[in-house]
């Protein structure tokens, strides 16, 4: 058995650690790139979204590398994502690939379902070994996300642009290579220390932009044209609440803090959206309402044709919060130059608003 799965940000790193500790043969397709997207577009219906096309491209690449067992999220609900595995399976069968597709459920008992799946893939490894391997993978993901939060702050004020990105790339590689908890802890500590010592413009007061929107395009840099890094180059501090580690706490362990945050977001959206519309649409509206005072502006990322985010996008201008929102639709037609031009104009707007606000405060005093 050779197992393959699609990319989504750095998710492959905790899964790789999990599979290695269980002696499962794991195939990692290339990081999502133009070839991946071209494969997905070639064999997809035009109206399907970029998460479908990129994950399909990854599954094809994994199959080409010899994977005979493919993992893909599945389940039931309002969002189409839960049904993609079935459609992708049929496409791959039509392409004459010989494989078994296993759906990772988005619904129901997620943690127990994942543990059962790992036992099956590992040829009935002990529960202790499975839980231990899963814990190590989760700790790796938490380390990645902790470093990423620091990188988001440093990018905005670093004197030599690109320094934080280079350290981040080295940190990700070091976390991937770490094979025990002590090494992992040391890597995390060392790289956060290096990031904290990057030469910074101490006079800078960067605009703060929140990233909201659909889970996949927020977390997959290729899908969003690496928008966080581009905002950092423009001197913007990026903040987002969507991290795989946060989702893991909420989905697997029903962490009380995670539940509180989720319920607060839904409650905040209720004056404008009364129920779940699928995907992350409810959360996108709620995050704007709940956290608008923390940001100078918001970038709302959505896959083209994603109905939940289209609903959210149309509600955004109706909320009372006075904060600019830049909607960006992600698909294979997304033009990088055009996106960068829009980001530059958006950042100029935020800086102008801040200056105007400061002038008004100065005159008032």
State Rg: 21 Å
Top CATH class of the largest domain: Alpha Beta
Shape summary:
globular
- With strands numbered from the N-terminus, the spatial order across the biggest sheet is 2-1-3-4
Plain-language structure description:
The protein has 365 residues and is of the alpha/beta class. The protein has three domains: 2-125, Rossmann fold (3-Layer(aba) Sandwich); 138-205; 206-365, Rossmann fold. Helices cover 56% and strands 11% of the residues. The chain has 15 helices and eight strands. It has helices spanning 12-21, 34-42, 50-64, 84-94, 110-121, 127-157, 163-177, 181-196, 215-219, 227-233, 244-253, 256-269, 281-291, 307-315, 336-364, and strands at residues 2-4, 25-27, 69-74, 100-105, 208-213, 237-239, 297-303, 325-330. Strands 2-1-3-4 form a four-stranded parallel beta sheet, sandwiched between helices. α4 (84-94) links the parallel β3 (69-74) and β4. α6 runs parallel beside α8 (181-196). The longest helix has 31 residues, at 127-157.
Task: Give short descriptive properties of this protein.
365 residues, Rossmann fold, 4-stranded parallel sheet, 8 strands, 56% helix
Would you spell out the secondary-structure blueprint of this structure?
Layout: E1 2-4, H1 12-21, E2 25-27, H2 34-42, H3 50-64, E3 69-74, H4 84-94, E4 100-105, H5 110-121, H6 127-157, H7 163-177, H8 181-196, E5 208-213, H9 215-219, H10 227-233, E6 237-239, H11 244-253, H12 256-269, H13 281-291, E7 297-303, H14 307-315, E8 325-330, H15 336-364
Parallel strand pairs: 1-2, 1-3, 3-4, 5-6, 5-7, 7-8
């Amino acid at each position: 058995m050779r197992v393959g799965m699609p990319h989504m940000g750095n998710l492959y790193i905790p899964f790789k650690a999990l599979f290695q500790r269980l002696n499962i043969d794991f195939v990692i397709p290339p990081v999502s790139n133009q070839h991946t997207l071209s494969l997905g577009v070639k064999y997809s219906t035009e109206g399907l979204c970029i998460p479908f096309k990129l994950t399909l491209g990854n599954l094809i690449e994994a199959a080409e590398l010899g994977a005979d067992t493919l993992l893909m999220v599945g389940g039931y609900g309002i969002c189409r994502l839960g049904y993609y595995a079935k459609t992708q399976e049929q496409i791959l069968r039509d392409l004459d690939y010989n494989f078994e597709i296993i759906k990772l459920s988005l619904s129901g008992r997620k943690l127990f379902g994942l543990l059962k799946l790992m036992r099956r893939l590992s040829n009935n490894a002990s529960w202790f070994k499975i839980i231990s391997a899963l814990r190590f993978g989760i700790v790796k993901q938490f380390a990645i996300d902790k470093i990423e939060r620091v990188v988001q702050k440093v990018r905005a004020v670093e004197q030599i642009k690109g320094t934080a990105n280079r350290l981040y790339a080295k940190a990700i590689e070091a976390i991937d290579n770490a094979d025990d908890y002590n090494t992992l802890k040391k890597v995390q500590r060392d790289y956060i220390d290096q990031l904290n010592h990057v030469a910074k413009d101490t006079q800078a007061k960067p605009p703060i932009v929140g990233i909201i929107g659909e889970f996949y395009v927020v977390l997959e840099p290729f899908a969003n044209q690496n928008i966080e890094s581009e905002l950092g180059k423009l001197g913007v501090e990026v903040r987002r609440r969507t991290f795989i580690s946060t989702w893991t706490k909420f989905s697997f362990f029903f962490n009380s803090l995670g539940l509180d945050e989720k319920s607060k977001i839904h409650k905040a959206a209720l004056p404008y959206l009364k129920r779940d519309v699928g995907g992350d649409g409810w959360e996108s509206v709620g995050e704007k309402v709940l956290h608008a005072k923390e940001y100078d502006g918001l970038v709302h990322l959505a896959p083209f044709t994603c109905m939940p985010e289209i609903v959210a996008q149309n509600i955004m201008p109706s909320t009372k919060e006075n904060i600019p929102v830049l909607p960006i639709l992600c698909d294979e037609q997304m033009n990088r130059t055009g996106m960068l031009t829009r980001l530059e104009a958006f950042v100029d707007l935020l800086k102008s608003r801040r200056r105007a606000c400061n002038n008004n405060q100065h005159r008032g005093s």
